[in-house]
């Protein structure tokens, strides 16, 4: 049996393979899931994505299932408790940013009706279908990611630089950056047609 060809950025770790094969690049329109991915991409800054994946359940537990209404109410005592939680990356700036981002997230929801409606405007409401044959062709950021970053920062979000925003766009299916040789490329493209 011939193994399916995947994007070469993954590892042989089963958690990473499952993430690549089932989640990465699939369009996301659920606000809570978008909030989760925005927070996790920010938490990943300076670390490997596998490090975050291994702690994902810890993050979900620690941050109330990524309910932005609950996270927005975190006070100094709750932040201090989170900084003692071994299930997450205990970076003071990143943990504080989660509560800050939750408050900004709620403001965006109030203004636009949903975070989904707001965030998808950066790609014109439809997924971008890229056609990269090699990893070296995939950019670290794009004009759309820079525009997203600039607007999020102006709204008070933290840990949302252009590179983080582009990783978020890739993860949540605003762009399809599976290589054309990857077995998921056409599958994700088909899912995009249904969004």
**Judging by the overall fold, what is the CATH architecture?**
Orthogonal Bundle
Stretches where pLDDT is under 50 for at least 5 consecutive residues are none
Mean residue pLDDT: 94
CATH superfamily: Hypothetical protein, domain 2
* Largest pleated sheet: 2 strands, parallel
Instruction: Provide the CATH topology.
Output: Endonuclease III, domain 1
Distance between the termini: 33 Å
* Broad shape: globular
Structure characterization notes:
The chain is an all-alpha fold and 195 residues long. The chain has one domain (14-193): Endonuclease III, domain 1, CATH 1.10.340.30. The chain is built from 10 helices and 2 strands; from the N terminus they run αααααααβααβα. The chain has helices at 14-22, 31-44, 49-62, 68-71, 76-82, 92-112, 115-119, 143-154, 162-171, 184-193; strands spanning 128-129, 175-176. A two-stranded parallel ribbon has the order 1-2. It is globular. The two termini are 33 Å apart. The model has no long low-confidence stretch (mean pLDDT 94).
Descriptive terms for the model:
single chain, 195 residues, mainly alpha, two-stranded parallel sheet, 54% helix
């Amino acid at each position: 049996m011939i193994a399916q060809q995947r994007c070469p950025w993954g590892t042989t770790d089963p958690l990473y393979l499952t993430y690549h094969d089932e989640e990465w690049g699939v369009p996301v329109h659920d606000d809570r899931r978008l909030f989760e991915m925005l927070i996790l991409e920010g938490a990943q800054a300076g670390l490997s994505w596998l490090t975050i994946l291994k702690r994902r359940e810890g993050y979900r537990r620690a941050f109330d299932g990524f309910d932005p209404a609950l996270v927005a109410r975190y006070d100094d005592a709750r932040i201090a408790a989170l900084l003692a939680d071994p299930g997450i990356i205990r970076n003071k700036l990143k943990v504080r940013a989660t509560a800050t981002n939750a408050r900004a997230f709620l403001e965006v929801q109030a203004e636009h009706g949903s975070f989904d409606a707001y965030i998808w405007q950066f790609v014109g409401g439809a997924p971008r279908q890229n056609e990269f044959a090699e990893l070296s062709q995939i950019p670290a950021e794009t004009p759309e990611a820079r525009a997203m970053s600039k607007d999020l920062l102006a709204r008070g979000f933290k840990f949302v630089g252009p590179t983080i925003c582009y990783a978020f766009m890739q993860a949540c299916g605003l762009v399809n950056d599976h290589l054309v040789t990857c077995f998921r490329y056409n599958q994700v493209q088909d899912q995009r047609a249904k969004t």
